[in-house]
């Protein structure tokens, strides 16, 4: 298996950290480009109904900027110049955006944590790892903490 592009999905959880360590190790071993991606789900206000329930673009841009800064601090500084990498923040339905990214970048391997930050998120949104594993056109490695 030739690995030229590896995708690591993160939500900054302990499982995502374990996935990052595995992805970093594999990217070094295979001299592959590592993409570290965080997908920001749509930001909504559940207290509102109708078209006003979606938060405007300005707060979302601010959130994305903060996530980019956190990714640089958490991952970019650790990766440094050791491997070719790209830190990316996606915005939208998490698993759909990840699958789209995989297809667009022609990723060879996806590495992600078994589950993320919120147990309640699994009930509401379903398992991102499960959806990616079922729909990705490439191999998927699910890491547990």
Radius of gyration: 15 Å
Span from first to last CA?
Answer: 25 Å
In sequence order, what are the helices and strands, one letter per element?
EHEHEHEHHE
Q: Which secondary-structure class do the elements indicate?
A: alpha/beta
CATH class type:
Alpha Beta
Query: How many DSSP E strands?
Result: 5
- Helical content stands at 40-55%
User: Main beta sheet: strand number and arrangement?
Assistant: 5 strands, parallel
Strand order, main sheet: write it out. Answer: 3-2-1-4-5
CATH topology: Rossmann fold
Instruction: Give the count of helical stretches.
Output: 5
Tell me the fraction of residues in β-strands, as a range.
15-25%
The CATH homologous superfamily corresponds to: HUPs
In the predicted model, the low-confidence regions spanning at least 5 consecutive residues are: 119-125
CATH architectural designation: 3-Layer(aba) Sandwich
Shape field: globular
Integer average pLDDT: 86
Number of domains: 1
């Amino acid at each position: 298996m030739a690995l030229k592009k590896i995708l690591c999905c993160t939500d900054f959880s302990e499982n995502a950290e374990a996935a990052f360590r595995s992805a970093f190790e594999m990217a070094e071993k295979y001299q592959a480009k590592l993409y570290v991606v965080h997908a920001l789900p749509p930001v909504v206000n559940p207290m509102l109904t109708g078209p006003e329930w979606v938060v405007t673009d300005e707060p979302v841009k601010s959130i994305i900027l903060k996530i980019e800064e956190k990714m640089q601090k958490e991952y970019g500084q650790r990766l440094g110049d050791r491997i070719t990498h790209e830190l990316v923040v996606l915005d939208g339905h998490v698993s759909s955006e990840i699958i789209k990214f995989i297809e667009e970048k022609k990723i060879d391997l996806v590495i992600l944590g078994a589950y993320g930050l919120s147990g309640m998120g699994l009930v509401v949104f379903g398992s991102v790892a499960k959806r990616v594993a079922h729909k990705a056109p490439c191999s998927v490695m699910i890491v547990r903490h």
